[in-house]
Design goal:
The protein is an alpha+beta fold and about 475 residues long. The chain is about 55% helix and about 15% strand. The protein contains 14 helices and 12 strands. The chain is elongated and about 175 Å long. Its EC number is 2.7.13.3.
């Protein structure tokens, strides 16, 4: 292309040169010379020819210089605009001392500045949106019209049990459950939102509530997939069913005993004084067991829901002694040795009823599951930050596999011994519910045949000045 321009330029100069020669041949007669100008004044003739070609070369060089300079400016301007287009331009570009380019770069710099501001605002909004999506408790995936995943949050990756690439890729790389992929395909086909409860086969058939939401119009749009984890909901439903079943079973046993012995008495056993006393004793025992079961069931229901508490200073030693007094018949029956370690006047701010439930249930377990002539040790301490209570026994102990399950409702390690002694299987769940609601912790260390140690740690509560006790 460049050589064509040079050829055209040269031909134009050649035409001018021929015209100059023709014009100079007419100078001789016009000046009154008898000979042509090249013969009469060869210096002038050849000088004018030389000046012509010198001017041609100089003007061509000047034009080439200006053209190269213009092309360089055009290249820089093009590069600058391309950088603006791809959001990679510097914040300010300075032009050479040329009015036309200065005006261009002033406008371009303003466009670049506005683009930078828009990009910063857009990045901030995108970052806020990503944080929002990633903190949602539900799985979210956005699929574009090409079936490519535009974004997905961490919860979605957890539910699908696959690492989701941040780069665009087919959603089929992540979705392996037919029910979910079919839900997405239906939404893409008819441009309507669809909903279904699905079990994710890639995550141990985890139940999820799935929504495939169409966002767009009839021509174009995208699909937003939302998964809500139903595992905890289904577990809670199953727990409720198990609870109802266990309560029904536990209530049926003492009721059956009471009804059976009452019927036996009515059929004539009441006339035998010895049988009468024996059967009434059994009826009373089963009635007490039934009362304990109903009381503990009500306690479980109460602690599972918010309820008002009334914290006040409680004398720990007096509460422990009172519970030991209630358990004294069983302690004497097993010839157990009890030891309490802690300041006699120590007080701790807590709801008195809940504090009694903690101590009573821990001590009851320590007595029921202890060996004959065993030991029950109670220790308690108080610091500026926490109160700690330890109940240790030398009983049958708890197998390692059962140590987490002892806090489940109605779970018993030794069912025969528990029922024989009137245990309901709700004592430790009640203690754990109270401790957790108070922001504390209960731990268990146990060895089969050696004994168990329960440690309850509770945070210190502040009590109004009017209720303050000396040691608090």
């Amino acid at each position: 292309m460049r050589w064509r321009v040079q050829l055209i330029r040269f031909l134009g100069a050649l035409v001018l040169f021929v015209g100059l020669l023709i014009w100079m041949t007419q100078w001789g007669p016009a000046l009154g010379l008898q000979e042509p100008l090249q013969d009469a004044a060869p210096g002038i003739y050849w000088g004018m020819i030389g000046v012509f070609w010198v001017l041609y070369v100089l003007l061509s060089a000047l034009r080439d210089w200006r053209l190269r300079r213009h092309r360089r400016q055009m290249a820089l301007a093009t590069q600058y605009m391309d950088q603006i287009l791809h959001l990679q331009a510097p914040e300010l570009m300075l032009a050479e001392d040329q009015p036309e380019w200065q005006q261009f770069y002033q406008v371009a710099n303003q466009v670049n500045l506005q683009t930078h501001r828009f990009k910063v605002a857009l990045d901030q909004k995108q970052a806020d949106f990503d944080r929002l999506i990633n903190h949602l408790p539900v799985g979210v995936m956005v699929i574009n019209p090409d079936d490519m995943v535009q974004m997905a949050n961490d919860v979605m990756a957890t539910l699908l049990d696959v690492p989701i690439d941040s780069e665009p890729h087919s959603y089929l790389d992540d979705v392996k459950t037919f029910g979910l992929s079919n839900l997405i395909e239906r939404t893409e086909a008819n441009h309507h939102t669809h909903h279904a409860e699905i079990k994710l086969v890639q995550n141990n058939e985890r139940p999820v509530d799935a929504y495939a939401v169409w966002i767009g119009d009839a021509q174009a749009g995208q699909v937003v997939v939302v998964l809500y984890d139903l595992a905890l909901v289904r577990a809670a439903e199953q727990m409720q069913l198990d609870f109802v079943g266990n309560v029904s079973h536990e209530l049926k046993t003492p009721i059956t005993s009471i009804a059976g012995f009452a019927e036996t008495l009515l059929n004539g056993a009441k006339d035998d004084p010895k049988a009468l006393t024996q059967f009434l004793t059994i009826i009373l025992k089963e009635a007490n067991r039934l009362n304990d079961l109903v009381t503990d069931t009500i306690s479980v229901a109460k602690f599972a829901n918010p309820h008002p508490i009334h914290p006040e200073p409680v004398n720990v030693r007096k509460e422990i002694d009172r519970c030991l007094t209630m358990l004294k018949p069983r302690i004497l029956e097993r010839q157990l040795k009890t030891k309490v370690e802690g300041p006699d006047d120590l007080t701790f701010v807590f709801d008195p009823g809940e504090f009694e439930d903690i101590i009573k249930n821990l001590l009851t377990n320590a007595v029921i599951y202890n060996h004959h002539q065993g030991n029950v040790d109670v220790r308690y301490t108080l610091t500026d930050k926490e109160f700690q209570l330890q109940v240790e026994d030398t009983g049958i102990g708890i197998p390692e596999d059962d140590q987490q399950r002892v806090f489940e409702r109605f779970y018993r390690v030794d069912k025969m011994r528990s029922r024989k002694n009137g245990g309901t299987g709700l004592g430790l769940p009640i203690v754990q519910a109270i401790v957790n609601r108070a922001g504390g912790e209960i731990t268990l260390h146990s060895q089969v045949g050696v004994g168990s140690l329960f440690t309850v740690t509770l945070p210190v509560r502040k009590v109004p000045a009017a209720q303050s006790a000396p040691n608090q």
